[in-house]
Amino acid sequence: MFSLDHYDLGTPASEATETVTLEIDGRVVTVPAGTSVMRAAAIARTKIPKLCATDTLKAFGSCRLCLVEIESRKGYPASCTTEVMQGMKVKTQSETLERLRRGVMELYLSDHPAELVSDQAPVRTEIREMAQRVGCTRNRYGADGARHVGAAVDDSNPYFQFDPNACIVCSRCVRACDEVQGTFALTIEGRGFDSRVVASQNESFVASECVSCGACIEACPTTALQEKSLVARSAPDRAVTTTCAYCGVGCSLKAEMKGETVVRMAPDRDGKANHGHACVKGRFAYGYATHEDRVRTPMIRAKITDPWREVSWDEAIQYAASEFKRLQATYGRDSIGGITSSRCTNEEAYLVQKFVRAALGNNNVDTCARVCHSPTGYGLKHTLGESAGTQAFTSLAKTDVVLLIGANPTEGHPVFASQLKQRLRQGAHLIVADPRTIGIVRTPHVQADYHLQLRPGTNVALMNALSHVVVTEGLTRESYIAERCEQPSYQKWKAFVAHPDRSPEATADATGVPAEDVRAAARLYAKAGNAAIYYGLGVTEHSQGTTMVMCIANLAMATGNLGREGVGVNPLRGQNNVQGSCDMGSFPHELSGYRHISDQATRALFESVWGVALEKEPGLRIPNMFEAALDGTFRGLYVQGEDMAQSDPNTQHVTAALSAMECVIVQDLFLNETAKYAHVFLPGSSFLEKDGTFTNAERRISRVRKVMQPLAGLEDWQVTVRLSNALGYPMHYSHPSEIMDEIAALTPTFHGVSYAKIDRLGSIQWPCNEHAPDGTPTMHIGEFVRGKGKFFVTEYVPTTERTTSRYPLLLTTGRVLTQYNVGAQTRRTKNVVWHDEDRLEMHPHDAETRGVGTGDWVGVASRAGETVMRALVTDRVQPGVVYTTFHFPESGANVVTTENSDWATNCPEYKVTAVQVIKVTQPAQWQQRFREIAQRQRILRGDRVTQT
Ligand code: SF4
Ligand code: SF4
Ligand code: FES
Predict the structure, then answer these.
(1) How far apart are CA 224 and CA 205, in angstroms?
(2) Which value, in Å, is the radius of gyration of the alpha carbons in the chain?
């Protein structure tokens, strides 16, 4: 269903800088050259009737409803395909035009169910609106057009249906799939009267290449394509703008509500990250929020072998507080800590770290970003001065070459992938560095210029080789470096990468990438007018994750690709609020805004507002907490919104550490894996049930708005407040906006941020302060945040996780489009139609030597553990490399990953595990134990809760 509340200008904006002045119905209008007459009229607040045009798609000119008269021109041109001219005089209304438009509309209505355009139609549609506008609600030809009447509805997709009876073959859906999404899954088959919309090779929608992004529905001016939820629940009565709670693209969405029920989740055309687009997760997979597995009552138990006891909020909070007090009295102040969540809001993350520092009196706070992007924080802070990506996504429009490293955007960041594909179709070039042949390497109308298919674990060697070419072939931008970077560090780095040991030829054996490809890719990147690097967890989740981030910054500085639009260094954040949770002071050594806890002036500032003395030594990181738990010195943990028993590496080590603690408090939507080791369960609230903000990968702070009451009665931030009060450190907030006011007061990069300003601007990219009152889309303009950019020597140190005859394959991990991280949310939606288990991808060669075929059960054994899953034989992976996802707890991907981690940040080396794979017939011992524990916990819960 098209959003009728959006003021649709009919055709996209022109990029031209020159302007043209014309007259429309006697009114003088000045617009950029290249603007359509339709858009110019809309800008002058005259809406010309239209059907095949919309401002997210190129003009098509097929419906002929938008005819106008132009002085000195013959005929009645279509205003959507006619460009403005200087001095042009346009008439949008006349008797002739009205007659022509009515005639056109009559023909459309002759092949459209009359009840859908009547005043009683259940849903407002654009065709109904236009029929009324042109004064044509009936037609002379009857409503029994022979073309589509009686055609079967395709309801194969779990979220939407296609009803050919209502289709007017305007092609908007086809063009949206091509131009907006870039999947090219739809076509118009047949000609003239027989033409109709088909998916792929005339398949059902669910079997086709359709990725269920919903762009076609958004574009459709009729009810031919519409959400099943809309059919079931009828039209919404209000819309609330909020932010997607899945990936770090941070799409702005409109929750269209009927009472407290979400009728549909529509992408926001004014959303500055997504511009009216979304993906299958944000658009459709919100059903988990009201899933029956949601825990709605707090629970406590003395031991993890005891049954859960449902209690009131007061009793749960008092019990948790008394346990934490007991532990501190018995084992000391530092014996407990807390974990903030990258899925929760900024305000909630800020409160949890404040709770740990002020109420518990130590710095034992960490965040799940530890296991994903902590090397980004460290690497970018040290080289450029700020722990964040440098650009807005719109910067892509000015990029000539994209170097994509260790990120799989078509699966992990789908709306960004669509924007990238659009830019590539316009002629930008793409270099992909990834061990797998990810989707964007070759997709319709897009092909990477180079796919540097390196061996897992050799990122740094590859980046040094790229830099070697840049330096030795004189492709550095010396004037930029002289002006903006520290010379001694540059000279040292330059000599380091110029050494023949770093050449593509010398490193080819290690990386597996042909030297000529490395040389060609380096030249392409360095010689581009504007080259940008986008990267993901394939960069950070390595033993040299931080080194690799520094490599990226080095290369960007050396080629002058920082500090303006079109360039930059851009980490694609996995979860919705990874950037925000880090910004909020979730790491044990930093307060909000990345200020070190040892800095006396910063501590004094927080102490004056918080009214407590702060500990100046950094606290424990997550892996240190686990070690300390096994040593018996760390006894209690408050975990908000992270399922560490599933997401952290070496599951058996994690669960042993959790089992060793005396009080684990889990605050989550579901009784997750970690909750099996918990003593207190505090029900969480979904993004639909609370107010707050998320910060996306562009540093964009966007509002999350409450559309329904929390199912368990409290928003997450209220629970932390209660816990803190019970521990004797009072917190007094009546709304998350007050928490943001405190963050703004204490954090220089947030000084100018407030809910009122976000409401006014839509969203804000930090830094937002006295120097940048409306925020900062591009960082490091003129100079780097740290002053001069600093190069770091990046020696390649191969991981200790090597293949041997016992473990001859390298396992690497990632995720798929339809599932999200540990899967707790998406597994509870209809997205399981597309992905209902994790599989092990194997190259045909490796599969054949082991006698393995697709669908066979295989045992995957590493030095850490062993699990069993089904195989998928594919040449997406190279020989010697296997790959899996970690969305389903029972597949145990993290049972096999090891505790190897990044030297600087302890970010786990998820991307490289040496394994052996053999064909098996029964589950691993770990899985048998897992099932027993799950079964026992279900009994202890004493109810219907299914396995999480
Ligand atoms: S399904 Fe909708 S958008 Fe697609 S051709 Fe038919 S009416 Fe147009
Ligand atoms: S791209 Fe990311 S933020 Fe946007 S709708 Fe999909 S999951 Fe949500
Ligand atoms: S809107 Fe112009 S031809 Fe359809």
Answers:
(1) 13
(2) 29
Q: Rounded to an integer, what distance in angstroms lies between the CA atom of residue 750 and that of residue 139?
A: 59
Instruction: Report the separation in Å between the CA atom of 167 and the middle of ligand 1, taken as the mean of its atom positions.
Output: 5
Peptide linkage before 879 cis (omega within 30 of 0): no
Q: In 3D, which of 201, 307, 362 has the Cα closest to residue 727?
A: 362
- For residue 684, pLDDT over 80 is answered with yes
How many CB atoms neighbour CB 205 within 10 A?
Answer: 24
Please list every protein residue whose CB sits less than 6 Å from any atom of ligand 3: 50-53, 61-66, 78, 80
Q: Give me the sign of the Cα torsion angle 298, 303, 304, 306.
A: negative
- The tokens for 461 are 């060697």
Nearest CA owner, ligand 2 atom 6: 279
User: Token pair of 634, please?
Assistant: 């760390």
The dihedral of CA 475, 479, 482, 485: what is its sign? negative
| Ligand 2 centroid from CA 249, angstroms | 6
- State how far the Cα of 340 lies from the Cα of 693, in Å rounded to an integer: 15
Backbone angles phi, psi at 196, to 5 degrees: -155, 160
- Report which bound ligand comes closest to the CA of 147: 1
Residue 146 has pLDDT above 70, yes or no: no
Distance 265 CA to ligand 2 centre (A): 12
Pocket of ligand 1 (CB under 6 A): 167-173, 197, 219-220, 222, 224-225
pLDDT over threshold 80, residue 291: yes
Q: Which residues contact 458 (CB under 8 A, 6 or more apart)?
A: 507, 510, 511, 512, 796, 798
| Pairing relationship of beta strands 89-91 and 19-24 according to DSSP bridges | parallel
Instruction: Report H helices in 727-853.
Output: 736-746, 755-761, 844-849
| Structure confidence at residue 235 as a pLDDT band (50, 70, 90) | confident
Q: Provide the strand spans (E) within 259-308.
A: 261-267, 299-300
Q: What is the pLDDT of residue 948?
A: 40
Tell me what pLDDT residue 894 has: 79
The pLDDT, as a whole number, for residue 667 is 97
pLDDT of residue 148: 62
The pLDDT assigned to 4 comes to 53
Query: Atom 1 (ligand 3): residue with closest C-alpha?
Result: 50
The model's pLDDT over 550-575, given as tens digits with 9 standing for 90+, comes to 999 999 999 999 999 999 999 998 78
β-pair partners for 102: none
Six token digits for residue 701:
């702070």
Q: pLDDT confidence of 864, banded at 50, 70, 90?
A: confident
Ligand 2 atom closest to Cα of residue 244: 8
Query: From the centroid of its chain, how far is CA 712?
Result: 27
CB atoms within 10 A of CB 27: 12
pLDDT tens-digit readout, 316-336: 999 999 999 999 999 999 999
3-state helix, strand, coil in the chain (%, to 5): 35, 20, 45
**Considering the entire predicted model, what is its pTM?**
0.94
Q: What atom of ligand 3 comes closest to residue 49's alpha carbon?
A: 1
- pLDDT bin (cut points 50, 70, 90) of residue 890 is confident
Task: Give the tokens for residue 300.
Answer: 């406590």
Q: How far is the CA of 188 from the centre of ligand 1 (A)?
A: 10
Q: Read out DSSP for 622-690? A: HHHHHHHHHHTS--EEEEES--HHHHSSSHHHHHHHHHH-SEEEEEESS--TGGGG-SEEEE---GGG-
Q: Name the residue at shortest CA distance from atom 2 of ligand 1.
A: 220
